[in-house]
Design a protein that fits this description.
- The complex is a heterodimer of chains A (152) and B (180).
- Chain A is 66% helix and 0% strand.
- Chain A is mainly α.
- The longest helix of chain A has 29 residues.
- Chain A is elongated and about 115 Å long.
- Chain B is of the alpha/beta class.
- A 5-stranded mixed sheet of chain B has the order 5-4-3-6-7. Chain B has a two-stranded antiparallel ribbon with strand order 1-2.
- In chain B, strand 6 and strand 7 form a beta hairpin.
- The longest helix of chain B has 21 residues.
- The chains are: A mainly alpha (152), B alpha/beta (180).
- Chains A and B meet through helix 2, helix 4 and helix 5 of A and helix 4 of B.
């Protein structure tokens, strides 16, 4: 093998070795950079294919579309919801888990963006009030019936 | 009427009436921003009409106004002259427009027709709008010189409101308040 051929092979090998390094040096997407700033690095496994689609739908269904009346990001046809779905998909693909993604959007929009209010503080009222109302109603009805039987 | 029944009824109804009374005066469309009081989210976006990009770090050192708008938004057209006059009058404040969900051609045409006094950036992916918690346009953020968001205003600006928030953004950090 001539010196020129050896040099060419060496140059080709060095260039091939530099490709993974170049790929690793690629700057993070703005969406994942923003998520890293708000919730830290991804805690889960990067997903792709059907698993990515399923997890994206699952998480998007838990987020409220900010421009619609009560629709989820998954169901809303609005442009904002579409952009948010894209961002959810990119974060899931990067390995962010459900809680991290919800927290990331909550950091921008507040608790309002969560379709299921977190169980903390005054939010407990939202979760417990229907059950308490049912119990209170049952007590009132029972009392009224007993009173009626007593009077009879 | 049985007193116990009356008392029980009042016990159940009065809290609901109190909540209704307190909430009636509030606009249900205004959602308080969790970003007020925190560092503004970073961004770097292409500027319309040039080949440059502008980022949040370019606004540091002076109070700043970041106005999210779109050419198809009627209230944005209404407040545009207010922002132009504000930018011309307050050279100590940096103004930036971020266009959401719009086309470059339409934005360039709009600015040619209606005037441009500060950089306008294009947020094509919507990532910056999402980072700022945008629910609609126009929405305007007021930052102090340190880059902290001191207020968010979610309605079309008028002169008086703009002056009020510019004073807030120009005040020392202890005087900053919450936004709408």
């Amino acid at each position: 093998m001539s010196a020129l051929t050896r040099r060419a092979w060496l140059a080709a090998l060095l260039a091939a070795g530099a490709l993974p390094a170049a790929a690793q040096a690629e700057p993070p997407q703005p969406e994942t950079a923003a998520a890293a700033a708000s919730v830290g690095p991804p805690r889960g496994t990067p997903l792709s294919g059907p698993a990515l689609d399923a997890r994206t739908k699952e998480v998007a269904a838990l987020l409220r579309c900010p421009v619609c009346q009560g629709l989820s990001v998954q169901d809303s046809p609005s442009s904002m919801a579409q952009k948010m779905r894209v961002q959810v998909r990119e974060l899931v693909a990067a390995g962010y888990d459900r809680e991290q993604i919800l927290k990331h959007f909550e950091a921008s929009y507040g608790e309002f963006v969560l379709l299921r209010p977190a169980m903390r503080g005054v939010n407990w009222l939202v979760w417990l009030a229907p059950a308490l109302g049912l119990v209170a109603g049952g007590v009132v009805v029972t009392w009224a019936l007993r009173r009626g039987r007593g009077a009879a | 009427m049985n007193r116990k029944v009356l008392l029980l009824g009042l016990l159940l109804v009065l809290p609901l009436v109190a909540v209704l009374f307190l909430m009636l005066g509030r606009d249900p469309h205004i959602v308080k921003s969790p970003l007020v009081g925190r560092a503004a989210p970073a961004f770097k976006l292409p500027a319309v009409g040039t080949d440059d990009a502008l980022g949040l770090q370019d606004l540091r050192g002076r109070p700043a106004v970041i106005n999210f708008w779109a050419t198809w938004c009627g209230p944005c057209i209404q407040e545009h002259p207010v922002l132009l006059r504000g930018a011309a009058a307050r050279k100590d404040v940096r103004f930036v427009g971020i266009v959401y969900d719009d086309k470059r051609d339409a934005v360039e045409e709009f600015l040619r027709a209606r005037g441009m006094a500060y950089p306008t950036l294009l947020d094509e992916s919507g990532a910056t709008a999402i980072a700022y918690g945008i629910q609609g346009v126009p929405e305007t953020f007021f930052l102090n010189a340190e880059g902290t968001i001191v207020a968010k205003y979610g309605l079309p600006l008028d002169e008086e409101t703009l002056d009020h928030y510019l004073k807030l953004a120009s005040s020392p950090p202890a005087a900053a308040g919450s936004g709408r």
